[in-house]
Amino acid sequence: MTTPPSAARGGEYKFGDRYVRRLGYGAMRLSGPAIMGPPTDPDEAAAVLRRALDAGINHIDTSDFYGPHTVNQLIADTLYPYPPELAIVTKVGARRTPDGDWPPATAPDELRQAVEDNLARLRVDSLYAVNLRMSGPGGDVFRSGSIAEPYGVLVDLQRQGKVRHLGISNVGSDQVHEALSIAPLVCVQNAYNIAHRGDDSLIDELETLGIAYVPFFPLGGFAPLQSQKLAEIAARLDASPMQVALAWLLRRSRNILLIPGTSTRAHLDENLRAADVADRIDAGTLAELNAL
Predict the structure, then answer these.
(1) Active-site residue among 13, 19, 25, 66?
(2) What is the pLDDT of residues 82-133, one digit of tens each?
(3) Residue ranges of E strands in 93-181
(4) Most Cβ neighbours (<10 Å): which of 12, 76, 243, 274?
(5) Where in the sequence is the domain holding 82, given as residue range(s)?
(6) What's the pTM?
(7) Do the domain assignments include residue 228?
């Protein structure tokens, strides 16, 4: 449950065939309102991407359904040609409708086209990693059912050299083990944060398997009482409550890779300082956070 401070601060984790910084960047917020359309401030959005690389981030999470298309286009326009150490991770398995909905898109032809679209807009011949995003009833976590067919499509694309590493998203433990029975898995991307810890056992299981856990919504879902307690702890640490929430995730398990998103450089810098906050969390403070 506790990662040594030296591992939390500036630490790296093996992700596929390379090591990445545990504090990465999620690019979803670079699109317009409701994750639709181009960014409100294109110059600032591009500056955020450049600042991320300047700060040493080498793991960017994106998808062609952010915008749709606009975020991947912005990444390519701003960062291409990419530095060799940069791992750009995308996801497939959903599409966008004109009204902003996110219906599933896991049919074989939909997945193949999604991979081709990501390749084209990111201007690469092979995607470093692709997450298969599943969806249960009403968009819930996909815990009951097989992912063999859609995962098999990505495995086939991996054999063709279009995808280097595979991940799955919004799934349970059964789907993780099914995926592993088909082909190696490098990451699982699910909703998890200090307030919503339904994946505690899954995180521990993945750590023993050497698989990265990438929480989305790492700063979401805080109740007023939790926010008040976070504020009290943050004041003692001379940090913001959100920095403490990110720092707790870094201390939670060494296989957690963070991808907090933002559309401003100031907020990006604030998020990155969470690594130093994690180093200042002593055992007593960690116990308080664990008890929320």
Answers:
(1) 66
(2) 999 999 999 999 999 999 999 999 999 999 999 999 999 999 999 999 999 9
(3) 127-133, 163-169
(4) 274
(5) 5-222+254-262
(6) 0.94
(7) no
